[in-house]
Amino acid sequence: MSVTLTESAAERVKTFLEKRGKGIGLRLGIKTSGCSGLSYMLEFVDTLNEDDQVFEQHGVKVIVDTKSLVYLDGTQLDFVKEGLNEGFKFTNPNVKDECGCGESFNV
After folding, report:
1. Spatial CB neighbours of 7, under 8 Å, sequence gap ≥ 6
2. Residue 33's pLDDT is what?
3. pTM of the model
C-alpha cells in the first residue's frame, strides 16, 4: 500500500512547513462529507499517531492513518496551477464516482 507525492506537491508542502515553522509532514485522510459521501482532508502533522503509515517522496513525509489508507491506496497528490486557480489535485484509482463540484467522492 502506498501514497505518492509529485515534486510540485512536495515543493508546495515544504514551503508551507517552512512558513509554519514546525511540523514533520502532511496528513492525508478522508472524512465523511459532501454529496458523494467522502472528501479528502489535509493537515499538518506535529506528532505521529500509533496507527499512522508514513510515505516519503522528494524529502516530504505524507502521513496516512490505517483506516484512511484503505480508501487512499495508490493515490497521487499533485499541486497544479490552472489559470488563476491553484491547489492540490488527488488522483485516486479507488474512486468510483465524484460529485459535480469535485469536492467529494465514493469508492
Report:
1. 58
2. 74
3. 0.84
